[in-house]
Specification:
alpha/beta; Rossmann fold; Cytochrome-c3 Hydrogenase, Chain A, domain 2; two-stranded antiparallel sheet; 14 helices
Length: 342
């Protein structure tokens, strides 16, 4: 696909801000590492940011709480200002932009016409489908119609967060508004699913950086998730995994095991069936993540996690055991039985 020639490149923008060549190359190196690419790929990232114009982005908000945008604000590299001011051209975001009303919608229409087939459509939230979709109205139109219209000329769609990828709490039983995830509504365009409630900030940054610098979509799994961020379970890299394998489990909140940082599996941790990078990348610049803070993973990056409950109870169909035997665990196997499909 040909690239745009009307917008400045990332390097041109950074240079106009006083960024020197050395700092720019450091930026490219760090961005390459974030995407999990080999150091040998740094030159291709440099070339892309020097030669290719910034990609226009239309960012929509449906039924959601804007936690995905809030998460992106905490991205450590690239930081959010670099993403929206330098890596991409964020031309429409009804939550962030100054324009409102007819002026805002005119901007969206202009981008769709001038950059047809070249802009990215980013979506937070989902669309209600019952009663004509009247539960979510944007600019006098149902969000469902805005989503379909915006996707019709987009190059690709990025579905941010569990609301957009699987429905999240809005789709929990009984789903009164009939919400559907983006991939169920947009079938004629490639959709990148980036689940999580919210997604990890650096995962969001990495997906954007990959599309911009590589000129293509990342490799996706069967659920449309980027393999570079969703190929492992949270459990695989958890710092408490050794306790799991040794049979050391928290049995009650505040017990001796909780104070010692033992495994939270029996307190309902969904880490073994949740695919995400929380335990590796952590949150807020690598500061912490739920399990590190003593809270079990609730599986927010997996489909239907709100109905996969109740929370704080061991998931039905999962079994754990280890070297130590106690009254709460009569099994002596050393295996974990995974429930549900990956």
């Amino acid at each position: 696909m040909p690239f745009l020639h009307k917008k400045p490149t990332t390097y041109e923008v950074l240079k106009s801000h006083g960024v020197d060549r050395r700092t720019f190359l450091d930026f490219c190196t760090r961005t390459t590492a974030l995407m999990g690419l080999a150091p040998a790929m740094v030159p291709s990232v440099v070339k892309a940011l020097v030669t290719q114009p910034r990609v226009p982005v239309i960012w929509l908000h449906g039924l959601e709480c804007t936690c995905c945008s809030e998460s992106l604000l905490r991205a450590s590299h690239p930081i959010v200002s670099d993403i929206i001011l330098n890596l991409i051209s964020l031309d429409y975001d009804d939550t962030l932009q100054v324009a409102a009303g007819f002026q805002a919608e005119e901007i969206r229409q202009t981008i769709m016409k001038q950059y047809a087939g070249q802009y990215l459509l980013a979506v937070e939230g989902n669309a209600p489908t019952k009663n004509g979709g009247v539960q979510c109205i944007v600019g006098g139109k149902t969000f469902l119609s805005v989503l379909e219209e915006s996707a019709s000329r987009a190059r690709a769609v990025i579905a941010w967060g569990s609301c957009a990828t699987s429905g999240c709490i809005q789709a929990a039983t009984p789903n009164p508004t009939g919400v559907l995830p983006v991939s169920a509504l947009i079938r004629n365009k490639p959709v990148i699913n980036v689940p999580g409630c919210p997604p990890i900030a650096d995962v969001m940054a990495g997906v954007i950086a990959y599309v911009v610098t590589q000129g293509k979509l990342p490799e996706l799994d069967s659920q449309g998730r980027p393999k570079m961020y969703y190929s492992k379970t949270v459990h695989e890299e958890c710092e408490r995994k050794d306790n799991f394998e040794e049979g050391r489990f928290v049995q009650n909140w505040g017990d001796d095991g909780a104070r010692k940082g033992w495994c939270l599996f029996k307190m309902g941790c969904r880490g073994p069936i949740t695919h995400n990078r929380c335990s590796e990348m952590k949150w807020n610049g690598g500061t912490s993540w739920p399990v590190d803070a003593g809270h079990p993973c609730i599986g927010c990056a997996e489909k239907g996690f709100w109905d996969n409950g109740p929370l704080y109870q061991q998931v039905e169909g999962l079994r754990a055991s280890g070297r130590e035997h106690d009254e709460h665990d009569e099994h002596d196997e050393r295996e974990l039985v995974h429930a549900g499909e990956r």
